[in-house]
Queue: 2 jobs
Job 1
Amino acid sequence: MDPLNPPSSGSKMMTTGVNHDTLSTCGVLDLRKGAQILHVPAITDRYYSVQFTDLNNVSFAYVGTRTTGSQAGDYLITGPGWKGEVPVGMAQIRASKNSVLIIGRTLVKNDSDLPAAYALAKQIELIPLQDWFAGK
C-alpha cells in the first residue's frame, strides 16, 4: 500500500490522520456487568490491531499483528473488581476502570481488497464471558 496514494475506497471509510488505508471501528466497553472476551480470527496476510484505551486516553493494551501475532486468539477483558479464573488458553487484559475505549483497525491493501478486509474485520468480535460459557 502506498501511503501517498490510498485506495479510492478510503473516502468511504472513517479516516483520521494517517489511517487512510484501514477500516476502523470503535466502541466503549462497560465492564460493570462482567468480563468480555475479544475473539480475533487468524489474520495472516495483513496488519490489524485492537487498541484498549482508558478514559484518560492512555493506551494500556494491544492485540494485533505487531503485538500478539497473526494467529487466532481469545482475550479475557476484565474490570478492576473482577474475580474469577481465566479460561484455559486465554490471555487476560486487565482494565483499571470499568469503561474502556476500544479501537479496531484492519488494513485495506487496495480497492479490490476492501471486501476481504471487511470480511476479516467482521470476524473480530466481543462476547460477554457468561455467553461464552453458555456457548452463545
Note: The domain at 20-134 is CATH 2.60.40.1610 (Immunoglobulin-like).
Job 2
Amino acid sequence: MSHAYVKRVYVDRAFQKKTNELVQQHIGAQFAGDSGFPDVRLDPRAIETIKQQQGGKATKIINLVKAIQKAAEENSDDPFLIAMAERAKAVQESFEERQTGTEETLSALLQAIERDEQRKREQIARGLDALTCFMFTTLRDKNIPHAEDVARKVGQAFAQYPNWRRSEKDLRELRNRMTFAISTEVEDVDKVTAVVDDLFAVLQRTHKS
C-alpha cells in the first residue's frame, strides 16, 4: 500500500478544524470532535448509522468522508473506491469553501455510498473482480455498447500484463489492447482515446496489496 496515497486521501486535521469553524460560525452547532462519534465503516448499515448519529449535518459529513476515504485506504487496489474517495474529496472541498450547502453535500455523499453498495451487489451477481467491475461500470456510464464484454476483454489484458505499472512496454501494450477493445464498439477515435485516458487516470492511482 502506498503511504503517499494514504496521506493524500485520508481526511486530515486541517479539514476537521476548518469544518469545525464553519459549523460554529455558519451552522450554529458545536462539533465535539472524534471522541463522541465512533468510526463508521462502509457496510450495508453505514448510511443508517450515520443518519442516526447525534449532532449536526456537518458532523455527519465529516464521518461520511472519513468512512469513504478509510475504505479507499484499506482497499487501495479497488479502482472504484479510489475514484469514489476522490469524488468525496472534491465534495469535501466544495463544502469547505462554502460552494455547496450542508444538505447538498450530505446528499451527495450518501448517494456515493449507496452507489457503492449497488456496485458490490452487481459485482457479485456478474462474477466480476473489482478491476473488471470498475471498467464495466465506467464504460456503461459512458454509453459504450456491450460494456461488460469489453470490460472482460480488457480485464484479461490486465492479467496478461501484471507489470504494467513498472514496464513502459507493458503499459503501451495494455493501452493498445484497451483501445482496440473499446474501438470495436465505438467509431469515434477521440471518444475512445478519452475513455482510455479516463480509465488509466484512476487505474494508475491504484496499488496492489
Note: The radius of gyration is 19 Å.
